Amino acid sequence: MQLSKNIFLFALTLALQFSGTAQSNKEQLEAIDKDIIKLGKLSGMNVANITETVTSPYNSKRQKAMAIYCWIGRNISWNIKAIKSSDPKNTLPENVVALRTSNALGFANLYQEMCSQCNIRCLVVDGFVKYNTEQFDEIPEQVNASWNVVQLGNTPSEWYYVDAFKSAGFSDSKWVTFYPEFSDVYFFPNKEIFNLEHYPDNTAWLLSRGPSGLKDFIGKPITGRASYENGLAGFFPDKGKYKAKLNQKFRFSLRLQSLQESSRVELKMSEGNKPAQTINANLEGEGNDYFIDHIFKKEAEYKVTVLINGKELITYLIEVEE
Asked: Most buried among 104, 173, 236, 237, by the most CB within 10 A?
């Protein structure tokens, strides 16, 4: 089926490049992660000893950076209370290791320190991440996230993103409970996809194309882990908050670079404060261009998330009116 260009109207179309190198990096990280799991928590060690133990089996800076990422993601948990209060207390690397919990700044500080001990140039970046649909209408007054940038060479293209905090897991929507679930997608991720989810306070650390400013970033849909795994390269609606007509077909359009044919696609929907319901979605299209049609049968405000294999791809707030 040939899909009309007008269907997509991609206000944000990202020309993402996926190469064999990206796949080999993933395979290498998976192999290193298996070794890190065998090491365990390394309880009782200080930061220097942990760094030496974790990185000594590897020769290249890239491998060492991977090993540090895996160990932190596997052994440090989110401190929900500190995250909600933006509390900088206990974010020094030694404190993070001693407590085995911290907020995003603590994760980033620890990652930077462990990289520095391996002579890997690594900096902490403060910025903004969208976690819920309420943020679509709010321009934040202060940063709410931290991550790292790592340099492996001498050119601008050899800077890479790392988000060890997000690698460790996720929380429930009310920020009460942390669920540990290690993810490899935040190590040297595709930069354009990362820029949909993160926006630096200092735009010098916007390593590739992204939103035109903080207001534009805040207005975009929320993207999740599945956006990396399936190569999200474009989407419509291009705004996170959008209007739909009652009892009329509404179309979500997606450009995906690496969707597997066997993927399970669903819509997770919640009306107002009601519990969310998940329904099977009929994903149609060809090549890399897909769409999902849905008819809203009640006037309300809906939080709608596209799930692929149970993981969040993209989230909208849809206002349905007659």
From this structure: 104
This prediction has a pTM of: 0.90
Tokens 């948990």 label which residue?
77
Instruction: Say which CATH class 20-219 falls into.
Output: alpha beta
User: Do 20-219 and 231-321 share a fold?
Assistant: no
What are the tens digits of pLDDT across the range 115-169?
Answer: 999 999 999 999 999 989 999 988 998 999 999 999 998 777 799 999 999 999 9
**171 - beta bridge partners?**
178
Q: Scan for tokens 């990206």, then name that residue.
A: 22
**In the Cβ-directed half-sphere of 172, how many Cα atoms lie within 13 Å?**
5
Q: How far is CA 288 from CA 14, 48, 100, 172, 260, in A?
A: 12, 46, 42, 31, 11
In the CATH hierarchy, which fold is given to the domain comprising 231-321? Immunoglobulin-like (2.60.40)
For the chain, what is the largest distance between any 2 Cα atoms, rounded to a whole number of angstroms? Answer: 64
- Reference 103, options 94, 90, 116; nearest CA is 90
Q: How far is CA 61 from CA 79, 121, 124, 160, 264, in A?
A: 29, 10, 18, 13, 37
pLDDT tens digits for range 271-280: 988 889 999 9
